[in-house]
């Protein structure tokens, strides 16, 4: 198990495998017009993740942009899925390309598809994404349910935009048996945030949510079904439970989403480190993770930077 100096288990890396996207969601830095950068090579991704899993990393989540726009995405999924110590390989997606790729992803070994679904209302969906392609996304969902990996749904909540449709999405998730998570878009002004209690009240108007007995305090079960619901709003954000680090498309490791402190993995890998050098670098990653996203925390806790 990988532990940081605060005894947190670090078991997930969020790996950005593409920068661009077909949509222009206002809450996301990616989109159609992103200026491309030089990517971390697939060979180096596999080499790095392989070492990390041998040290105790258990989960990888592929993200973007839109991961399915990466030309070699199926090869990358297959190679990662074949790492013996990796327990879970998931991918976030907007779903637009799923109709033609869901089956291939399952065959390649993907554990879970995490679909970002801001609304089931065509007008709101278009307003959020800048594209009227909800029907194509729903076709992708059908393909995934038929012959793709297990499906999970994530819902970005934007006050004054899409919160009125959360019950419809929950009903849909229940109907297809998919876990669903609702999370606050933190790019909004803090005074526009929706409280956890407010969202739970809305979700519970026509059904009962029962707190899960799992480790996370923001997880619930829908009474009468096996569907899991996660409510990760801003007022429940707890750095003390953080279990991950991030690797950008161009190979920059970030240990906290709220801090700019980072490490250039791409340059390190291009210098062709020895196996011992790579293991030494990888073993120090978690030791640099701060407790919170404040500069004072970094100053007080220090770290063994590479």
Commentary on this structure:
The chain has 306 residues and is an alpha/beta fold. It has one domain (12-280): Aldolase class I (TIM Barrel), CATH 3.20.20.70. The chain has 10 helices and 12 strands. It has helices spanning 42-55, 73-81, 98-108, 122-129, 134-147, 166-176, 196-203, 265-270, 275-284, 295-301, and strands spanning 12-16, 59-63, 88-93, 112-116, 151-157, 180-184, 209-211, 219-222, 228-232, 244-247, 252-254, 262-264. A 12-stranded mixed sheet has the order 7-8-9-6-5-4-3-2-1-10-11-12. Helix 2 links the parallel strand 2 (59-63) and strand 3 (88-93). Helix 2 (73-81) runs parallel beside helix 3 and helix 3 packs parallel to helix 5 (134-147). The radius of gyration is 19 Å and the shape is globular. It starts with 11 loop residues before the first strand and ends in a 5-residue tail after the last helix. Residues 295-306 have low confidence and may be disordered.
What would you say about this model in short?
The chain has 306 residues and is α/β, with parallel strands linked by helices. 32% of the residues lie in helices and 18% in strands.
What's the layout of helices and strands?
Elements: E1 12-16, H1 42-55, E2 59-63, H2 73-81, E3 88-93, H3 98-108, E4 112-116, H4 122-129, H5 134-147, E5 151-157, H6 166-176, E6 180-184, H7 196-203, E7 209-211, E8 219-222, E9 228-232, E10 244-247, E11 252-254, E12 262-264, H8 265-270, H9 275-284, H10 295-301
Parallel strand pairs: 1-2, 1-10, 2-3, 3-4, 4-5, 5-6, 6-9
Antiparallel strand pairs: 7-8, 8-9, 10-11, 11-12
Helix pairs in contact: 1-9, 2-3, 3-5
């Amino acid at each position: 198990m990988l532990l940081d100096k605060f005894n947190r288990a670090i078991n997930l890396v969020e790996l950005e495998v593409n920068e661009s996207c077909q949509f222009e969601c206002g809450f996301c830095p990616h989109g159609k017009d992103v200026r491309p950068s030089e990517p971390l090579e697939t060979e180096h991704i596999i080499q790095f993740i392989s070492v990390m899993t041998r040290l105790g990393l258990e989960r990888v989540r592929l993200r973007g942009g839109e991961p399915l726009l990466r030309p070699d995405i199926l090869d990358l999924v297959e190679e990662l899925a074949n790492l013996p110590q990796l327990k879970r390989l998931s991918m976030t997606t907007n779903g637009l390309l799923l109709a033609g790729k869901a089956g291939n992803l399952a065959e390649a070994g993907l554990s879970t598809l995490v679909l970002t679904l801001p609304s089931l209302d065509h007008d709101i969906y278009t307003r959020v994404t800048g594209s009227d392609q909800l029907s194509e996304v729903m076709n992708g969902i059908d393909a995934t349910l038929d012959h793709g990996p297990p499906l999970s749904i994530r819902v970005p909540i934007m006050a004054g935009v899409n919160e009125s449709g959360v019950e419809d999405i929950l009903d849909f998730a229940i109907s297809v048996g998919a876990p669903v998570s609702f999370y606050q878009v933190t790019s909004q002004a803090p005074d526009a945030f929706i409280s956890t209690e407010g969202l739970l009240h809305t979700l519970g108007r026509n059904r009962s949510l029962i707190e899960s007995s799992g480790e996370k305090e923001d997880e619930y079960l829908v009474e009468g079904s096996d569907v899991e619901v996660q409510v990760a709003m801003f007022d429940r954000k707890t750095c003390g439970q953080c279990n991950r680090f991030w690797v950008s498309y161009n190979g920059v490791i970030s240990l906290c989403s709220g801090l700019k402190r980072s490490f250039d993995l791409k340059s390190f890998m291009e210098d062709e480190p020895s196996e011992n050098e790579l293991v030494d670098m990888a073993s120090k990653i978690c030791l640099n993770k701060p407790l919170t996203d404040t500069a004072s925390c970094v100053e007080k806790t220090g770290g063994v930077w590479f």
